[in-house]
Design goal:
Helix content is 43%, strand content 12%. It contains 14 helices and 11 strands. The protein has helices spanning 24-32, 45-49, 53-57, 77-89, 104-107, 119-132, 152-161, 185-191, 209-219, 236-246, 255-273, 275-289, 297-303, 309-323; strands at 2-3, 6-7, 13-15, 38-39, 43-44, 68-73, 94-99, 137-142, 166-170, 200-203, 223-226. Strands 3, 4, 5, 6, 7, 8, 9, 10 and 11 form a 9-stranded parallel β-sheet that branches.
Amino acid sequence: MKIGSVDLGDRPLLLAPMEDVTDPSFRFMCKHFGADMMYTEFINADGLIRDAGSSVAKLNIYDYERPIGIQLYGHIIESMVEAARVATAANPEIIDINFGCPVKKIANRGAGSGMMRDVPKMVEMTKQIVNATHLPVTVKTRLGWDDESKNIVEIAERLQDVGIKALTIHGRTRAQLYTGKADWTLIGEVKNNPRMNIPIIGNGDIDDPEIAKENFEKYGVDAIMIGRATYGRPWIFKEIKDFLRTGEKMTPLTTLQKVDIAKQHFAKSMEIKGARTGILEMRRHFSCYFKGLPHFKEIRLKLVTSNDPDEIIALLNEVANRYGDFTVDENINPSPWSK
């Protein structure tokens, strides 16, 4: 599969852009386990052009992460175009437009999935961004605003017509947020529309290698994007790839193995962000890595409140010693902070 000149190979797996999740240290772990392409956390266009520190910091990318996309969101066309120019200067492989975020404070002001209520504006914004950068422009969106307006087939054609190079579709409406089951039938309809000639990437409820294989085969998507199922489970990319290659499921990781992964992630977080910020940003990940362990509340509380790197390592060693070869069902909802 190619996005412009970016060749991602056959049946690639992509890491979804997620606020407060896909920072550089988490991307490092996902790349280690085989993510074919990743995205930064999504970036507020207004903040980026105002040179707000938190937005600008999200432009930091590393050569080992490539190919990588920078995702932008906003509701003002001029701001999004200028932000695309700024993001282009950071030299990613792809600029992605967020027309899918369902969070109320974003969607209700017309950004993210809120743009699905104004398709002409969505198309015009996309056209101007395509014209503002030499990089391939892609879009991530949903099936529609609600059950009465599942207009993704029309939207896909119109976005292709103004020059996007790939489209990612999350199989829910904005009204669903993350509830219910993702509906891939319309994703498949877009993919099999004879008018479409760009890659179609499916997203939603990919939390098991068998589901990934089934969706590749049943709906014909060119790639799959994985979001919430990566929380505390960056190895899901390896799980799926191994299954696609061999038909055999990977042996579930033991807690001891997860501790080793958490330590690598923790070290990278502190290396990139410094000890204080690195510790704070790891707390949500610690909760996810060890979700489902029995009688874990006391250690978990210490892990997410300690500010001492040595104490945290000692706590991780305690987890390893106490739980060792214990395994947890990976399909337990691993997210204590889903939006």
